[in-house]
Structure formats: C-alpha cells, structure tokens
Amino acid sequence: GVQDPHHEKIITVTTNGSIHSPKFPHTYPRNTVLVWRLVALDENVWIQLTFDERFGLEDPEDDICKYDFVEVEEPSDGTVLGRWCGSSTVPSRQISKGNQIRIRFVSDEYFPSEPGFCIHYTVLMPHHTEAPSPSLLPPSALPLDVLNNAVAGFSTVEDLIRYLEPERWQLDLEDLYRPTWQLLGKAYIHGRKSRVVDLNLLKEEARLYSCTPRNFSVSLREELKRTDTIFWPLCLLVKRCGGNCACCQQSCNECQCVPTKVTKKYHEVLQLKPRIGVRGLHKSLTDVPLEHHEECDCVCKRNTEG
C-alpha cells in the first residue's frame, strides 16, 4: 500500500485542484517516490479523483505494475483502490470513503515514459452520488457457488485478486507469480502442429465444416467435477469433435461424429480453495488436465451404442 510518510505531502482540499507527475506532460524523472495525502477540511465530504486523458507510465510486466506506477489508497483502512501503469487505458474515477485519500507515484531507474499523469481532485458531497455498497460478507465467507458467480465477472487476474484481498493484493500477486524450483509446468509442453497441404480448396472447405476437431468452451468445475474448488478463468477452450457427417462413407442409415484420437493437455490456471479450519482462500497456480480431440471420424451410429 501507500506507506511512505517521509515523502508525504499533505494538501488541504477546499476547492478543485490537481496533482501531477514531475514535468507533466513530458517525461518524468527516474528514481522518484512522491506521496500526496489530500485532506478535506469538512469531515462530512468525499474527495473525487479524475485522471487526465493524457496518461502514460512504463508498461506493466505480465499485467502487473511493478516498476513505474501511480497508486491510490484509502487512508481510513489501508485499502488500495488501484495501481495503474502503461498507456493503453486511462484509470477510472476514484472516490474516497471519507474526507481523505492518498496517492503515491513511483518510478524506478529504467525506462521513464511520457506524459506521466495528472489527477484532478474535487470535493464531493455524499448525496451527489451513490457510494458503492460493500458486500456484507468478505469474499472468502461467501458460499462457494455465490463466490464462483462473483469471480466470473472479473476480466483480469489483477482485478480478481484485488477483490479477494483488497489490503494485500499486490503481495498475493507477487507470491502467485514468484518462480519456484519447478519452473516449467506441464502447461508449457506443447505438441507439434501438423501441416496439411491444400490439394483441393473446395474439398478442404467441406472437410473443415464436416466432422473435425473444433474449439469448444468447457466449464472447469463441471469438466473436472470439482465443486469444492473455484478456477479462474472459469472456462477454457478445448478441441472437441463437431460438425455433421453428410459425406459419411459408411454403409449405414445414420453416421455420427466421434473422436478417434484423444490426448490430455495441461493448462495452468488460478485455483481458489477454502482453507480448512480458518477463514480465507488458498490461492495457487495449478495445472489442470483436459481432454482434447485430435482426430475425428464419421462412424455408423449403431457401432457407438452399448
């Protein structure tokens, strides 16, 4: 979180204003740590932060802002509202829970970027907007099916971990991606791709839309029959046989598409499991095995029954 009182600058907020990275909108300096604590004189107001559209810091690594970043913290409980870097998206509007909010800017010794950032702040009366209603229960205390539905709504691991552990999400992310002695999991072992020469384009097009392996999305909890665990992503793509058998060469009334070659492939995902006897969730990266259909064929339907 934002904890660096030696560099903290207290700004009394009575009207609109802004703070920005040094030299904004030009390249900011290296090796910089700046902390601002905005304090409104009226204890019954909130502070709203709006980021300038001109936003650009050093890019993240593996979607994690490790090097140059700007971070916003709620001083009342230490909750980190967000950490941002890169230049692909402008951070969303932030609203304090009380009359204070803290902002930290960090740059390392490499790759400074431009234009940096500029944050406009304004005093907000509570009745001017609706505060986000916090959940009555922490995520780890929710029933597993309810938590599974909540987890499904997140689009990045960073947002998911921030939701699960608002006070220590950066540490959890770093622990999650910290290399271990087993550097290469089974998910990194890929089979060879075969190349098929197009001898006849029309025939090839028909084949592609006939009985062939194609992408299907599967629910990991259902596929692995693991209702005691939550996986993220919730679904993954696998190759499964699909398509019709209009050109079936078998002498039978009805053909159906079945797999003739099945392989097991491992996929690295985030696993969330309730801790036994204590509150909280155990988070780990794990390899899950999923069946992929490599080859398919049309066979008489009666041959597959029984």
From TrEMBL:
InterPro entries: CUB_dom (IPR000859), Cystine-knot_cytokine (IPR029034), PDGF/VEGF_dom (IPR000072), Sperma_CUB_dom_sf (IPR035914). SUPFAM superfamilies: Cystine-knot cytokines, Spermadhesin, CUB domain. Residues 192-303 form the Platelet-derived growth factor (PDGF) family profile domain. Keywords: Cleavage on pair of basic residues, Developmental protein, Disulfide bond, Glycoprotein, Growth factor, Mitogen, Secreted, Signal. Pfam families: CUB, PDGF. PROSITE patterns: CUB (PS01180), PDGF_2 (PS50278). The keyword Disulfide bond applies. GO terms for cellular component: extracellular space; membrane. One of its GO terms (biological process) is positive regulation of cell migration. Residues 7-124 form the CUB domain. Gene3D superfamilies: Cystine-knot cytokines (2.10.90.10), Spermadhesin, CUB domain (2.60.120.290). GO terms for molecular function: growth factor activity; platelet-derived growth factor receptor binding. The keyword Ion transport does not apply. It is found in: Secreted. This is Platelet-derived growth factor C. It comes from Cardinalis cardinalis. The lineage of its organism: Eukaryota, Metazoa, Chordata, Craniata, Vertebrata. The gene is Pdgfc.
